[in-house]
Write a structure and sequence with these properties.
- By secondary structure, the chain is α+β, with helices and mostly antiparallel strands.
- The chain folds into two domains: 82 residues, RimP-like superfamily, N-terminal (GMP Synthetase, Chain A, domain 3), CATH 3.30.300.70; 58 residues, Roll (SH3 type barrels), CATH 2.30.30.
- The chain contains four helices and eight strands; from the N terminus they run αββαβαβββββα.
- β2, α2 and β3 form a beta-alpha-beta unit.
- The longest helix is centred in the N-terminal third of the chain and has 23 residues.
- It starts with a helix and ends with a helix.
């Protein structure tokens, strides 16, 4: 069995161990990374849900997975486990990403070099709907999009700050 197939099998076993923990916590697995860090293998699991994941939940999920991994003895040698949630710079690439962050403020970078910010109004077929500041919804074909990531609507944040003061 080649190394790539072995890693794929290990990733599937890890995913199977994680699923009951994820379902119990109401979070989704965004990505599983298996990497070498010198002599120690690193397992990094990125999880999220609408509204985010709190630090205490990350710790609880990390402990639960670590116990499962120790029982199953999936790693031959020492390993380092990292459980995290994606930050704002995490790219939205899948249909599930766009659904999870529906109504969030996003920055859309187009292949032609332009960037647009607005509210994620979801996917419509193979197009991303972005509600721009003027409230108009513009459709962008996914083929024209280089990258989409969450952003902060500073104008909105600034208005809220002024209303409190």
């Amino acid at each position: 069995m080649d190394v790539e197939q072995e890693e794929n099998d290990l990733e599937q076993q890890i995913r199977a161990l994680l699923m009951p923990i994820m379902e119990d916590s109401g979070v989704e697995i965004i990505r599983i990374y298996l990497g070498q860090g010198g002599l120690t293998q690193t397992l990094r699991v990125v999880i999220d849900r609408r509204g985010g994941v709190e630090t205490g939940e990350l710790e609880r999920i990390s402990r639960a997975l670590a116990l499962q991994l120790d029982v199953e003895d999936l790693f031959r040698d020492e390993y380092r486990l990292e459980i995290s949630s994606p930050g704002l710079s995490w790219p939205l690439t899948t249909d599930a990403d766009f659904a999870r962050y529906l109504d969030d403020w996003i920055c859309v970078e187009l292949h032609d070099g332009h960037s647009i910010e607005g509210r994620n109004a979801g996917l419509l077929g193979d197009q991303l709907q972005v509600q721009e500041k003027n409230k108009e919804i513009i459709l962008y074909p996914r083929a024209d999009i280089r990258k989409v990531k969450r952003a902060i609507d500073w104008a909105s944040v600034s208005k809220r700050g002024k209303q409190r003061g």
